[in-house]
Design brief:
Blueprint (H helix, E strand, L loop, with lengths): L1 H33 L5 H20 L2 H9 L9 H18 L6 H4 L1 H27 L2 H4 L3 H38 L8 H25 L6 H4 L9 H6 L2 H32 L6 H48 L3 H12 L2 H23 L4 H5 L1 H24 L12 H29 L4 H27 L1
Helix pairs in contact: 1-2, 1-4, 1-8, 1-9, 1-17, 2-6, 2-17, 3-6, 4-6, 4-9, 6-17, 8-9, 8-13, 8-15, 12-15, 12-17, 12-18, 13-14, 13-15, 13-18, 15-19, 17-18
Amino acid sequence: MVKQYLSYALGAFGHDAFYATLNTYFAIFVTSALFVGNGAAAEAGIVTTMVVVIRLIEIAFDPMIGGMVDNTNTKFGKFKPWILIGAIVSSVGIMLMFSSLFGLADSNTSIYFLLFGIVFVIMDIFYSFKDIAFWSMLPALSVDSKVRNKFGTIGRFGSTLGSQGVIIVVTPLVIYFSQTFSGTHGSTQTRAGWLGFAIVIGLVSFLGALATFFGTKEQTSLIRENTEKTRFRDVFKVIGENDQLMWLGFSYLLFALSYVVTNSLLIYYFRYVIGNAAAYSLIGVITAILGIISVPLFPIIVSKITRKGVYIGGICMMLVGYILFMLAGTNTIMMYIADAIFFFPYPMIFLAALMTITDSVEYGQWKNGTRNESVTLSVRPLIDKLAGAFSTGIVVIAAVHSGMTGNAKPSDITSHGMFVFHSFIFYMPMILLIVAALIYQFKIVLSEKKHAEIVRELETKLETEKEEEEESESK
């Protein structure tokens, strides 16, 4: 089992390093390096609008992708082929996205926009296959909630290190590759520097997928065998009839959106409010260390206060972090403290949501009579992509309307611009978090105890049916 845990963690490491790069740093690349000079804001707006619109359209296809994964049957299982293929195509795609597409961004923006749209659609589709296959593998690794908690915990441990590790290396890597390929000095960041960074992330994502492909194994059981092929016309019905999945999805969307928006705008805070972009790298060090502490604590804490306690209590702690953020001003140390309190519960809240979604596979099977692993688990990646799409647009809107673009300095930001920025990075996310907690408190009834009862009932029912079938055949 140790090999499987490690392989899954490595896959999660590369996967979330990719996710953080795409959803946090692509908008920064577009606004600070890809387009500069006159018309830069408008051109950046076009690209980010395309990203948001394409992702919103493609998100509707995620449950269908889940259905395709559910219907896959190969000697490698249903998940691994999609994890590997998705990693290969999406890694190439992110390298192309962090480039000027062979100079077209300068020579012919119309052709650039067209080609970018094609590249992004292909990249996002295959990333979706990988994302859905990777996380929907969880219920196939075990039907036992305790074992799932371990896989989920070790997976989140890897993904936390991956996503927070990007924060640590992004500025040093971009500056290093800028100096190496563009001959720059100091902290200047160029397109070539961002491309070098994207190549590193693409390779990390691919190598992580290889580890999961060769190091994990799907388990067989009566419950998992009770699976029918999912028709495409039924995928949305499967999700819609699972009330616990729907309510959890809504709550998690608000939570994810608030976190991603604040996390994405923090680099702007250090650059344009504090005036020290280099100090942002320490945020990654702090959150990586806290992730190492926070994630392993999840099984212990959840056994004491349940998933609901982790989810709602964690959100309360994040709200305290927001209050400290607003009191910090330009005090860098205070920002580090606020971010530590803000981030510490985040991995555990994610795990509480992931485990609830995972358990809703059996809940849906118990309630509706059919088991749908990837269709059900596709909801979590769908929500993360939805949050990522909205946050990309929100970050660009916040940056443009706050005056935080191009070569602007902290002294250039007006009081109105600062108010707009604070509204996006602090005020709006706090409201979303409060609503997310209220939904979980009053609408989620799928506790660990309830799931264990459902599993026992399903096993008894399926064993009885199997015995009756064997008796019938023997006659």
